[in-house]
User: Which sequence fits this backbone?
């Protein structure tokens, strides 16, 4: 399953908006980050983009509009309701690819390390997950997963669940299936880079993996209340979030970028 296939369903709403015709309410031209001053910017609630744009007073954004899903923010951009969208780089590439008239500005907003969220103080699980991450990095499993979902490397393939004994219970993973290629819905399943990585870790730990889809800003609460064991959703390791949960070692470095109209 390549990235284009992953996005087919998720992008349907955005594409329909494109076909319906774009409003020209916003005529703001944004070519560099400094051009965001005085503009209206869309973000997905609770994401790193939300935190950065809301807290970055030097950015000079006039209004921050919050959306439950990333594609809803992109749809508003297409309709001219907002001037830009701040979002993770990989979903941004897919949205731009599928919607004529959008672009990602060349200037990078910020880079960020993605890690697995774990209940604060659960050092036993954290140590096991860090050891598993180290193992899949060393044996090439993680790179193979990245090659398939992000690199589109010829000959790459999705991770295949291993036939191993699972005597150690169930690893419950909280995620938000709105971030392809990290996670998205295909049929009745949540698929993507994060899901394959979590499955590889569960295989090593001798556990079953249960994936639970929820709003992004509910993930940390589910971890802190013990409803989920881990949070895997392109989750950025930040000092603010460390007040509530612990993080594993980083498994991928992503970027926040800005989508605007051409």
Assistant:
């Amino acid at each position: 399953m390549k990235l284009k296939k992953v996005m087919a369903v998720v992008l349907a709403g955005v594409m329909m908006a494109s076909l319906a015709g774009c409003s020209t309410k916003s005529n703001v031209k944004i070519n560099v980050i400094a051009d965001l001053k005085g503009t209206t910017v869309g973000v997905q609630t609770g994401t790193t983009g939300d935190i950065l744009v809301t807290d970055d007073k030097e950015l000079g954004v006039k209004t921050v509009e919050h959306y439950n899903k990333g594609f809803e923010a992109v749809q508003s951009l297409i309709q001219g309701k907002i001037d830009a969208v701040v979002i993770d780089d990989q979903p941004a590439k897919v949205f731009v690819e599928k919607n004529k008239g959008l672009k990602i500005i060349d200037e990078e907003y910020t880079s960020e390390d993605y890690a697995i969220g774990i209940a604060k103080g659960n050092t036993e699980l954290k140590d096991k997950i860090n050891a598993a991450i180290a193992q899949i990095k060393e044996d090439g499993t993680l790179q193979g997963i990245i090659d398939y979902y992000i690199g589109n490397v010829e000959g790459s393939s999705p991770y295949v669940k291993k036939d191993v004994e699972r005597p150690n219970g169930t690893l419950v993973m909280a995620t938000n299936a709105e971030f392809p290629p990290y996670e998205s819905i295909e049929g009745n399943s949540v698929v993507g880079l994060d899901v394959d990585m979590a499955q590889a870790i569960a295989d090593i730990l001798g556990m079953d993996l249960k994936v639970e889809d929820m709003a992004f800003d509910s993930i940390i609460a589910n971890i802190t209340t013990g409803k989920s064991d881990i949070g895997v959703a392109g989750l950025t390791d930040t000092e603010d979030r460390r007040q509530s949960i612990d993080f594993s070692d980083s498994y991928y470095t992503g970027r926040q970028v800005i989508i605007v109209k051409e």
About this structure: Residues 52 and 110 are 9 Å apart (CA to CA).
